[in-house]
Amino acid sequence: MTRFAAGVDIGGTSIKTGLFNASLELVHRCATVDTTSQPSGDKLVEGVLASIEAGLSELGGKPADLAGIGIGSPGPLDLDEGIVLESPNTPMLNNFALRDSMSRAAGVPAWLDNDANVFVLGEAHQGAGKGYAYVLGVTLGTGFGWGIVFNGRVYHGATGTAAEYGPTVWREEGHTWEDDVSIQGLMRVYHERGGSAGSPEEVSRLAGEGDETARAAWEEYGRVLGLSLSHGVNLIDPHVVVVGGAMVGAWDHFSPVMLQTLRRNIFSLPRERLKVMPSKLGGLAALYGAASQVRMADE
Question: Domains of the chain by range and CATH?
């Protein structure tokens, strides 16, 4: 009998679901679920399960063929209890026991981790970090998420908050890394330099056309990103750093300064050996990582 692992990636506007085989190959993309129309956590669970069951049916399977469900969710989370503590973009999940509610409704085991962790986990198993034991990953967007994978498993720390480095203050004015390495941070620097574009996509287009203000904003973004990554590299000494999220589309504009700053602030051996790469799986990385929790559970 063919068994499937379901991956669930919960975002602020939509929820991706997919079915994976035992080799962690995506065999079916299920229908996307609209997050904003879900009035409660229980209704969200119902919608996700309906999508998964429809996917199983399209593959000629049935609910009994489902081995388990891995979930990636915005946090913060209580990983021991499987609870979403607070999530501004998914308020219906605040203080909701998502893991156990999903498990009870589906009749199979479920696993829960935060969205940055499952992104890095997906890249470590099937993406840019595949084949490396120590993987550090970051996601660039409205926030600045971090995750660490050692030998195929997420490093959570004592309370499940390991790698929550984005909110850390790094300047005396009270600026956190996330204040600067984010969409808001890029746009603030760009506007302070006199730019008038309204989105990172526009700033990227202008930089590609040679606009000096846009190029300078991306370079400052890359400088701060590289400095923050140097802290992570010096702390955990990964084989590879994987960079994902919405801002990776501007890789050519920020990565040269990012790499220069990073390598200037780390030790000689990692300076020679460290790999730094953009995400290979893109928007599907978190889905792969979520599903990999199920596959790993039987090890």
Answer: 4-119+284-297 (3.30.420.40), 131-279 (3.30.420.40)
